[in-house]
Design brief:
It is a single chain. This protein has 202 residues and is mostly beta strands. The protein has a domain at 25-127: Jelly Rolls, CATH 2.60.120. Helices cover 0% and strands 51% of the residues. The chain is built from no helices and 16 strands. Strands 1, 12, 13, 14, 15 and 16 form a six-stranded antiparallel β-sheet that branches. The protein has a six-stranded antiparallel β-sheet with strand order 2-3-4-11-6-9, with no helix packed on it. Strands 5-10-7-8 form a four-stranded antiparallel β-sheet, with no helix packed on it. The two termini are 17 Å apart.
Length: 202
C-alpha cells in the first residue's frame, strides 16, 4: 500500500492512482535553500507517524550538507547534471548520471557540485521495517519491465508510453512515475527508467 502526493488541483490524467505526474506534484524547499524536493509517493506510517518508505525527486542547487534521517537508508540516483560529489561519512563518491548509490541516511553527507545544479531521484527506507532497491533499466518498444505491487517505474531519460488495464497508451514526461499492480502496467519506449522496489523486512 502506498500514498499519493497531495497534488490536489490537477488535470484528470494526473489524478490516476497508478500514474503520478511529476509536474502536478507540489515542491518544497529543503536544506535551508539548497534546492527543491517533490515527494512522489510514500508507504505506511509507523509509530512515529512518518512513512516507512518514501520516493522523491530533488534538485541540488548549491553545495552543502544533506538533511539527516535517523534509522534510514537512502539510495540516490543522479538524473540531470554532469557530476555530483557526495562525501558520505568521510568517503567521497563521484556520482555520474543514472548510477545509484546506497548509503546510510543518518551519517554526515556533504554534496558538492563541480559542474553545476543536479537533479536526483531518492529513496528513503526505515531501516528496521523496510528495504528498497533501485535498478536503472533500458526501455524497449516491445517488452515492458514487470511492475508488481510496491514497485514504481520513473522515467529518467528518453520517451515512453504507459498502458493500464488494456487502455490506450499515455505519454510519459520525464520523472513521471508509474505504480505497479497485480495487473502490471505496460511501459514501452526508448530511453532509461528507474524501477524502484520497496519491501517489508521480517
Amino acid at each position: 500500500m502506498y500514498s499519493l502526493p497531495a497534488a490536489a488541483s490537477c488535470s484528470p490524467s494526473s489524478m490516476r492512482a497508478d500514474l503520478i505526474r511529476f509536474a502536478a506534484v507540489p515542491s518544497r524547499s529543503w536544506g535551508s535553500g539548497s534546492g527543491r524536493s517533490k515527494d512522489l509517493t510514500s508507504g505506511p506510517a509507523g509509530d512515529s507517524g512518518t512513512p516507512g518508505w518514501r520516493l522523491s525527486a530533488a534538485t541540488i542547487e548549491k553545495s552543502g550538507p544533506f538533511t539527516r534521517f535517523e534509522n534510514t537508508d537512502r539510495i540516490t540516483v543522479p538524473v540531470e547534471g554532469e557530476l555530483l560529489l557526495l562525501n558520505v561519512d568521510g568517503t567521497e563518491h563521484a556520482m555520474e548520471r543514472l548510477r545509484p548509490l546506497r548509503y546510510p541516511g543518518d551519517v554526515p553527507v556533504q554534496a558538492s557540485l563541480p559542474t553545476g545544479e543536479v537533479t536526483v531521484l531518492n529513496t528513503f527506507a526505515e531501516r528496521d521495517r523496510f528495504g528498497a532497491a533501485v535498478m536503472v533499466v533500458e526501455l524497449s518498444k516491445k517488452n515492458s519491465p514487470a511492475l508488481g505491487p510496491d514497485q514504481f517505474l520513473v522515467l529518467l531519460q528518453g520517451s515512453a508510453k504507459a498502458s493500464f488495464d488494456g487502455g490506450a497508451p499515455e505519454d510519459l514526461d520525464l520523472l513521471d512515475t508509474v505504480a505497479g499492480s497485480e495487473e502490471s502496467p505496460a511501459v514501452l519506449g526508448r530511453g532509461f527508467a528507474a524501477v524502484v522496489s520497496f519491501y517489508p523486512l521480517d
